[in-house]
Write a structure and sequence with these properties.
globular; oxidoreductase; Rossmann fold; cytoplasm; 7 strands; Short-chain dehydrogenase; alpha/beta; binds NADP nicotinamide-adenine-dinucleotide phosphate; seven-stranded parallel sheet
Length: 252
């Protein structure tokens, strides 16, 4: 059986990914601080395996403990394949360099970079002991490749996850196993993260008006459109390990 682990499944893109996978009859493990009752109900309705693990991804000890437990539970079931969606992310701090506070800066890197690194590490290690194929999907951003004033921390964290993805992919190829790891850039979506962006200050974020316009002009994609493009790619089986995919190319 195939299992999918989705971090940040409580809302936004993660919720949309989890919903699509439940509809595909896949077993789902959801990880976030809050549980999404709709997912639980949908899985019940469809008769699929669903389990939620509460975890604060900015607490590295908690991440290690919770994901060791998740790995233990899943590998016991001798899965044929595990899809790991490192989707959870935070945009804050939105602030210019010189005005950054330490706590949100460190938190950003813990959620956006350290947690996906540690989780991927756990699953690649466990996979070596079994015949399970692992596919890791790290959700990145166009901001990884484009400097945006006020977003130095977020841009840097997403650039780091892209490089982690590319490096880990080379290592897995060298091992000649079936594991794959990709990054996926979802474009601008109508989620809570965009609300946070719109509530930042003009002093901290130069492009504030442009992002308000995106919402007003209906330019933000619904998360389910983006999730469907990603899941169609994954289910096609035609994934190139190490590649940074962009939703705009998938929706052409
Ligand atoms: N929205 C966009 O326009 C956009 C553009 C480019 C890239 N992205 C990327 O897409 C991904 C999904 O973003 P989104 O727009 O769906 O964001 P969102 O609606 O704000 O949802 C973020 C998710 O991450 C989880 N999360 C945040 N901090 C966490 C923590 N400390 N511990 C555990 N879970 C945590 C949240 O769950 P809880 O609050 O329940 O813990 C929530 O489920 C992110 O990686 C983001 O960087 C988004």
């Amino acid at each position: 059986m195939k299992y999918a682990i989705v971090t940040g499944a409580s809302k936004g893109l993660g919720e949309a990914i989890a919903k699509r996978l439940i509809n595909e009859q896949m077993a789902i493990v959801s990880v976030s601080r809050t549980e999404n009752e709709d997912l639980k109900n949908l899985a019940q309705e469809k008769g699929t395996y669903y389990r939620h693990f509460s975890c604060n991804l900015s607490l590295e000890k908690e991440v290690q403990e919770v994901f060791m437990e998740i790995a233990h539970c899943i590998f016991l079931k001798e899965p044929t394949e595990i899809l790991l969606f490192n989707n959870a992310g935070v945009i804050e701090p939105i602030e210019t360099v010189g005005n950054l506070d330490l706590t949100p800066t460190v938190r950003n890197f813990k959620v956006n970079v350290i947690a996906p690194m540690m989780i991927t590490n756990i699953f690649f290690k466990e996979a070596e002991l079994s015949n399970t194929k692992i596919q890791v999907i790290n959700v990145t951003s166009g901001a990884a490749e484009r400097p945006i004033e006020g977003w130095s921390v977020y841009c840097s964290s997403k650039a780091a996850i892209n490089m982690f993805t590319q490096t880990a992919a080379l290592e897995q190829m060298e091992k000649n196993n079936n594991n794959k790891i990709i990054a996926f850039s979802p474009g601008i979506m109508d989620t809570n993260m965009q609300e946070t962006i719109r509530s930042s200050s003009k002093e901290a974020f130069k492009n504030l008006e442009q992002f308000k316009d995106y919402k007003e002009k209906g330019m933000l994609r619904p998360a389910h459109v983006v999730a469907n493009a990603l899941i169609d790619l994954i289910l096609s089986g035609d994934v190139e390990s190490g590649k940074v995919y962009n939703v705009n190319d998938l929706l052409k």
